[in-house]
Amino acid sequence: MKASSGNNWSLQVYNPWPDVMEGTPSSNNYQPGFMVDLMVKDLGLACEVAESCGVDNQMGKQAMAAYSAHQGEGNGPRDFSSILEWVKAQ
């Protein structure tokens, strides 16, 4: 994927899959760089702005619901990439 149009930041810098890349939160039991709590806050702000502008932000709302559910399971202090565990459990 790195050699194609699928190349992206997660593959190059911040892989969310454990033990693929050294030095990332996923390889350290999702100890945070950017916490789930902060992601929920930022997604909430983005959703508020979208709503105030009349934008139907379905993807943002879905991301907010997923991160809020993950946070509600006690994962707020973990790195935002730990959402991979929540997705795998669905």
Summarize the structure.
By secondary structure, this protein is an all-alpha fold. It is about 50% helix and about 0% strand.
Give structural notes.
Helix content is 51%, strand content 0%. With 90 residues, it is mostly helical. It has one domain: N-(1-d-carboxylethyl)-l-norvaline Dehydrogenase, domain 2. Helix 2 (36-52) runs antiparallel to helix 3. The radius of gyration is 14 Å and the shape is globular.
Shape: globular
CATH structural fold name: N-(1-d-carboxylethyl)-l-norvaline Dehydrogenase, domain 2
Broad structural category: mainly alpha
- Main sheet, how many strands, which sense, barrel? none
According to DSSP, the number of beta strands is 0
Total number of helices: 4
The tally of structural domains comes to 1
Q: Class, according to the CATH hierarchy? A: Mainly Alpha
**Termini, distance in Å?**
25 Å
Q: What are the main properties of this structure?
A:
single chain, 90 residues, mainly alpha, N-(1-d-carboxylethyl)-l-norvaline Dehydrogenase, domain 2, 51% helix, 0% strand, globular
SSE arrangement:
Layout: H1 9-12, H2 36-52, H3 58-75, H4 83-89
